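Q: A reviewer asked whether we had any structural model of the full assembly, not just the individual parts. We don't, so I'm hoping you can provide one. Inputs are below.
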Amino acid sequence: MKTVTLVAAATIFAAAAAPAFAADDTITIGFTGSRTGPLNVDSTGQERGYDFWRDEVNAKGGIDVGGKKYKVKFVSYDDQSVGGRVQQLYTRLINQDKAQFLFGPYSSGLVAAAAVISEQYGKIMVDSGGAEEKPFELGNKGLFMVITSASHYLSGAVEALKSKNPHAKVAMVYSDDPFSKTVLAATKEQAKKAGLDVVLDESYAPSTTDFGPIVNKIISSNADAFLGGGHYSDGATLARQMHDQKANMKWISILVAPADDKFAELGDAAAGVTVPSQWELQVNYKPDFGPTTAEFAKAFEAKFKHKADYHAASGYAAGVVLEKAIEKAGSLDPKKVTDALNATDFTTFFGHIKFATDPGHHGLQTEHSMVLAQWQKAKDGKLARQVVWPKAAQSADLIYPINAAAMH
Amino acid sequence: MYGILASIVDGVLVGLVYGLAAMGLTLIWGVMDVINLTHGAMIVAGMFALFLIVQAFGVSPYLALPPVLIGGFFAGVLLYWIAVHRMVGRPPLMSLLSTFSVNLVLIGIGTAVWGTALFNVNVSLPGLTVGRYTFPGGHIVAAVLAIVIAAALYAFLHYTRMGKAVRAVANNREAAELVGVPTTRMLAISVGIGVALAGVSGVLIGTLFPFTVLSGDTYELKGFVVTVLGGLGNPVGALLGGVALGLLEGLVAPFAPVSWTLIIEFALFVVVLVAFPTGIFASRRGSL
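A: Here is a predicted structure for the entire assembly that you could use as a starting point for your response.
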């Protein structure tokens, strides 16, 4: 009897351990996506970016590691937009699914949670959806961020606003999640330095559904410019309620939400709203290799029946960065790949990518830069995002003030 | 100063809708001592019915109210037979669990079909502008409709034979049975009305704010606070409780950071539960 149990146990063990042996010509990459919950919209874009990259690599035959081609296999789960889930799932990805490399989840809070696990197990995690700097200041060794970090998100908006109105009265209202708080804390300093007058500085719970009292507060503060928001749901609701309650802002910059095409569903409430963006369809970097912006945008839309946004582009960039590092290392050894990642220095259609290597900021993005996009009405009345800042990258003139009749 | 006034008025407008959202919850509780945890899901169902009707027919959002009212009623009767009938009169935990399970099923289906992305229904009604502050037209219409629907419910409960029968069942089911009231049918009808109210309030909330499949939780939670303020099992008190909650939200905002609103709200919830266990606006427990 005892032997039977023993054999059964051994079989189960062998079955559980099987994935580790089965995958000798594939590279397994693990990640979680927020397929449900408040981060769903933005996270979906990022996941599409990952998928697009995987399919592209596999169509070429895989990643070249020292002359042998490895196909890319994904293992992923729904983290339900919850930090606690992320830690369970990344542990599972590493221990049970034997993921060799990791991509980040979406949003700063979730990336910070996942990074604790990835570092514990000495795994490399490429982050394209969490912009907060803090996890990169803790001496983490395998964490790399391909996007511009949080404290630079609204610096373009501050510059652009200053160029139009050096004495703007700014209301800052933002979600009290780690990402938004980091962005707005840095923005406040930048705004003060630029001579702008910050008349309201307030955060709200990410679950807020009625922004009516907040909008009244913005009006009472006599502000004429708005900087803030958080992620999709709250940002879009804020934009709509500022419009419904005629807050009459001359300038509105909202984080993240307006970077999604869904934002146009708000109609007139979307017009004139600006958003800091990691990437737009109009940016035109000259890639060292791979597709140009136009090629990527076209292939992406053909595949997903959905326009590429910056979350998709940054997700794709995460894949490319990892791919190039593995090829350069010629090995799947995490240490060699980390060294290759540290030496990353190239431009794709997403922009220039290079990582900080000093221990105090290891893995932070140093070269990639953001643009400011604005929702503008075309002649046919349709809303579209145009790049309005920096001037060198403009695809349309910046509209200011946005409450003027000129918008309609 | 005007800012505070504006916040208060806006709070009352939105509060009336919160009150309507809580009315169905408190009605079912009053009639059969069942806390209907599908309430949030039913509110969300109303929101999505609104979205689908507006998208499909391009009609005014308010035309979604009649079909949701009727559909909600039948959905409620169905819910009664599926998840409530056998639980009436048993320990409250039983009905909590059974309605919670149905809630999970409904939310799960909703998530599978629509995901958890944000949906938005634009309402283009001229607002009322006073000085720099504007009360959106949608808020005013929703508040007025909430009062109308609440008044209709009051009239139904007090002036119709069937309404009186519902109240009789709420007061004393055995006595009602003895005088020939078909109590089971009345219970089913009460759940039907409760769910219809949830659906209708979902439509109205959907005209005010963008929503997701998961939005119901927020309003169900507010529903509990409103119910406690207004008195358990007292639908008209619920409307007043809603106004109180809206007022509170409007009043807190100008003086404290808005992230404090929830803390103050639920602190009040505890205080009211301790100091006025039957609610501030309650007359007598069990008298609908």
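A: Points you may want to mention in the reply: Residues 18 and 237 of chain B are 12 Å apart (CA to CA). The longest helix of chain B spans residues 2-32.
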